[in-house]
TrEMBL record:
InterPro entries: DUF531 (IPR007501). Pfam families: DUF531 (PF04407). This is DUF531 domain-containing protein. It comes from the Archaea.
């Protein structure tokens, strides 16, 4: 089997940055089992919380938080306020990609053979801010059809589609 670099799903908080909301907790709880299942790291960016807040999330999702705990215990979960070089190539997700920066899920799978990739998903109605969009090397439309997905649907789809391509490389 080929040695693959790690993919990190980065949930970017564009909700309230000053208050720890139930929506933040639900997004993390929903993303953790997906990341665990598809061998992906999980990072949260600009969330108004500390590690203790994450450890105290009570949920029935993901086998009562078991997968979130697994990610934390195996150093595959990060709370960040800026992009880290260890995440590799920064990629944003959007249903309206700039054609000059467009990358397909298959191309990301090929890239993961050489480099790690950090894939941003914006939470909330405002999506990703301009500074994150400018930071990105590539823009991914996971549907490849310009279909806008609800956030939780996108969170599930991105690692699963890219992992499927990885199986066939």
């Amino acid at each position: 089997m080929k040695h693959l670099k790690r993919m990190t799903l980065i949930l970017y908080n564009s909700y309230d940055k000053s208050r720890w909301h139930e929506a933040h907790k639900r997004a993390i709880a929903r993303a953790a089992p997906i990341c665990y299942a598809f061998n992906c790291n999980l990072a949260i960016m600009d969330f108004p919380c500390k590690k203790e807040d994450i450890l105290s999330i009570e949920t029935t999702i993901g086998n009562s938080g078991e997968y979130l705990k697994e990610l934390i215990d195996n150093n595959r979960f990060s709370i960040i306020d800026k992009y880290r070089a260890q995440f590799g190539v920064p990629i944003i997700t959007t249903s309206k990609p700039d054609e000059r920066k467009l990358i397909t899920p298959r191309e990301i799978a090929n890239l993961l053979l050489k480099k790690p990739c950090g894939i941003f998903v914006g939470l909330g109605r405002h999506g990703l801010p301009k500074n994150i969009i400018k930071l990105s090397d590539y823009q991914l439309d996971i549907t490849e059809k310009r279909v806008s997905l609800e956030t939780c649907t996108a969170i599930a789809t991105i690692p699963s589609v890219i992992s499927t391509y990885l199986k066939f490389l």
